[in-house]
Amino acid sequence: MIVELSKTVDAPASALWRVMGEEYADIANVVSGVYVSQARPGAGVNGAPIEGRVCHTSLGKHPLIETIKVYDPDARKLSYDANSKSFPAFVKSLVNNWEFREINEAKTEVRMRLEGDLSFPFNYLMASMMKWRFAKIMPGVIDELAHYARTGQKHPGKIASDATRKAQKSRAAVIIAPA
Tell me, what DSSP letter sits at residue 49? Predict the structure, then answer.
């Protein structure tokens, strides 16, 4: 299953890369549905600041464990795989790929490609529904990222997400390890 989105946003490519690449561990400041994010310390690939991150999200009671697979600051490309005990058993892997292509100083083409490997027969039974769901979510994620990169402030949707009871309970239950 592959879901792709390319969207032009009003934010500099350098600012988008800073948020997604250099500040990778801090995605909970940016995206709705990610309530807490923590660095997974360790040697990252190609100079990545960390090995990955742990995200407590709206996607289940277990965190997402992400590992950076591609980290290319020059090309502004990032790829990571995500795993969680909350994923259905038929989800073998999920890999998210990002690319930020500068159009001009203030505009960037953001490319996002989500690759999911689903077990048979679920690759036929569930792929369409999952593609539809991810295709619905991805534009909002890019909008929130662009808003944050451009302003340094949370998007109104992120602020609303953070105010939910589920987000508050999640933050209260997670102990943040010191950096």
Answer: S
Identity of the residue numbered 25: A
Q: Which residues contact 75 (CB under 8 A, 6 or more apart)?
A: 99
Return d(Cα 32, Cα 142) in angstroms, integer.
11
Residue 86 to residue 53: CA distance in whole angstroms: 16
| pLDDT value at residue 175 | 66
Q: What is the 3-state secondary structure (H, E, C) of 74-124?
A: CCCEEEEEEECCCCCCCEEEEEEEEEEEEEECCEEEEEEEEEEEECCCHHH
* 0.70 exceeded by pTM: yes
Host H or E run for residue 35: strand 34-40
